[in-house]
Structures are given as C-alpha cells and as structure tokens.
Amino acid sequence: MIVRKSVGRVKSLLFLLTVLLFFFATYNLVAMIMEHKADGLEQSNRKLMRSNAKFHVAVTATDSAYNQWQCRIMYYWYEKVKEMRGSEMGKFTRILHSGRPDQLMDEIPTFVVDPLPEGLDRGYIVLNRPWAFVQWLEKADIQEEYILMAEPDHIFVNPLPNLAYGSQPAAYPFFYIKPEENEKVLRKFYPEEKGPVTNIDPIGNSPVIIKKSLMEEIAPTWVNVSLRMKDDAETDKAFGWVLEMYAYAVASALHGVKHNLRKDFMLQPPWDLRVEDRFIIHYTYGCDYNLKGELTYGKIGEWRFDKRSYLMGPPPRNLPLPPQGVPESVVRLVKMVNEATANLPEWDSLNKS
Predict the structure, then answer these.
(1) Which of 269, 259, 161 is nearest to 203 (CA)?
(2) pLDDT for 110-148, tens place per residue?
(3) What are the residues whose beta carbons fall under 8 Å from the beta carbon of 159, sequence distance 6 or more?
(4) In 3-state terms, what secondary structure has residue 270?
(5) Is residue 46 within 8 Å of residue 165, measured between CB atoms?
(6) Measured between alpha carbons, how far is 293 from 323 in angstroms, rounded to an integer?
(7) How far, in Å, CA of 102 to CA of 297, rounded?
(8) Residue 349 scores a pLDDT above 80
(9) Where is the Hydroxyproline O-arabinosyltransferase-like domain (predicted)?
C-alpha cells in the first residue's frame, strides 16, 4: 500500500515537472517569435521611412593643390564603391567655394559658389563651408532626397547605405566635441530656454547624412552661428579649429534636430586599427611609425604618411607600404591612395600650386 502511494507521488511530481518544462519551453519560443517579429517590424518601419534611399554626396573644397589631390582620390573611390552591393550613393558634387572654375571641372562634377566676402572668415577658411552649402542648396538641381556632407580627406572603403531614417540624420560622434564641458561658452548661442546643452550632439557637419529639406532649414542658421562664434574672442579661443563643427552642432540643436550617432560611419587611422565594417577612412591624422611598426605619434617617424606633407602638390605615386606590424587601417589607407594615384591621369603634374 505504501509502495503504491510512493509511486503515485513520483508520477505526480514527474507530471508536474513535465508541465513546467513545457510551459517554460513554450514561453521562450513565443518570446523569441515575438522578438523576431518586433525586429522585423522595426526594420519594415525603417524601410517605410526611407521614401528615397539614394543620397547625394557633396564635398566642399577650394581650388588649392592640397584640396585638389584629395578630391581626386575621393572621387576615384566614390566611383568604384557607388555601384557595389549595399551602396545607396546617388550623384556627386564638389562644391567649389573659390568663386571660379578650376582645372578639375571636367573630371569631377563641380558646382562653383562664391566665398565669403573678403576678410569675413578671418583666415579660418572652413567658415566658407556653411556658406557654400547655403548657395548650393538654393541654386543647384539636387534630385536626391538626402545629402551626405563629406570632406576631401574621406575615402569610401565600404559600400555606404543611407544611414538616415526619415527626418533623423545620421552623424559620426567625435570624442573632442564636448558640449557639456563647454556649457558656459555655448550658452551664448544656445540659450537655457532651449533646454540642456546635452541637446547639442557631439558632432560636426561631416560626415552627416541628412534630409535635403532639413538641411535647407539648418544651413542659414549654421552660417550665422559660425560667424557669431568667430566674432566672439572667448568662443574662438575655446573652440579653435573645431569652431565650425560646434557651430553645426548648435545650429542643428536650435532646430530641434537630434542625430543618430554612428561610430561605424567612419574610422580614423592611426587610432582606429581595423577597417572591418566601417564605411569611410578619414585620414586627418598623421601616421608615424618606426621601422619596428611602433607608433611614434607627435614625433616624425622613420615611416610616415601625413596629408600635410603635401600642401603644395600631390603625394608621389607608389608610396612605400608601412613596416610590418603597422595596423591594417594604415596599410589599407596607403594601398587605396596608391591605387587611385596609379590610375588617375597626369597625377604628378595636374595638381601643383
């Protein structure tokens, strides 16, 4: 009798355990399905928000030899990458703010605009960038609904999709743009009634993918904020060479615009070591190494690549590759420069000041 009761209790416990295991398995399966559906719905919603996925690539530049050779390399890689699977690049425009045509008009699609009135930039030539965009947006026939604001020292290393969704632009976050640490200065341009300074994104205008209609609203404000910042001695001293970047960030915040911050938008050798799935190489920093492949930043290396070494004319073809042990990002950069220069005509003679 006792044995039968014990067996019955064991069967009851086994049955209860089976029910519980079935419940948890079913719950997890349903949760996974619901999560998958939610992800699918989010992706579908994002696709619906992209009424025109193509974006126009726009780069502002001068007619200096320094800008010209960089633009030639940039445009070479744009043409190679734009047709690759995953790319949503549209047309390309070099917005030339020197006020006159130059020798690259037939090679690179170019729209000539006027520089700021003489002396207004106070020698800070990038103040011409927002003014160039205002003129281009007013006068050019831009077919795409979105715009990528880029710079001459950008190389497209992977096919770039449209990272913006609807009215939310996409931007790269810069570690040195720190609104919270500069609140005192920024309050001159972003008053307290507008909200906390954390509304100001840690970005510049480039790289940014943004809806054209939204850029048309922001650009005039960007011009005005840039000029006001340059006229203010405290702000000019605080921000220095990144003043125009802060001006774009403030102008966007004044219009209530927040950007989707994408660290994969860009990599910057020598600090970013691998290309991986990032889209743009920005070669603004000098790359200096000893022959052991060790970084000697701040000290001229036994091997180096620095765009500022070529202010008066283009780098030579077939640059020597870095020593063994140098990060893949730097090796990739030099190989891409070498490929472009090997295939661009009159490379050694066309772009000299």
Answers:
(1) 259
(2) 999 999 999 998 889 999 999 999 999 999 999 999 999
(3) 81, 82, 84, 85, 86, 87, 89, 279
(4) coil
(5) yes
(6) 5
(7) 35
(8) no
(9) 55-348
CA distance 134 to 222: 9
pLDDT of res. 336 = 98
169 near 260, Cβ under 8 Å? yes
If you count them, how many residues does the chain have? Answer: 353
Residue 229 zone, left/alpha/beta (φ > 0; ψ -120 to 50; rest): alpha
Per CATH, the architecture of 53-266 is what? Alpha-Beta Complex (3.90)
Across the chain, mean pLDDT equals: 88
Question: Do 209 and 282 meet the contact criterion of CB atoms below 8 Å apart?
Answer: no
Q: Rounded distance, CA 44 to CA 151, Å?
A: 32
Q: For residue range 61-95, what is the model confidence (pLDDT) as tens digits?
A: 999 999 999 999 999 999 999 999 999 999 999 99
- Of the candidates 171, 177, 283, the one whose C-alpha atom is nearest the C-alpha of residue 239 is 177
pTM: 0.85
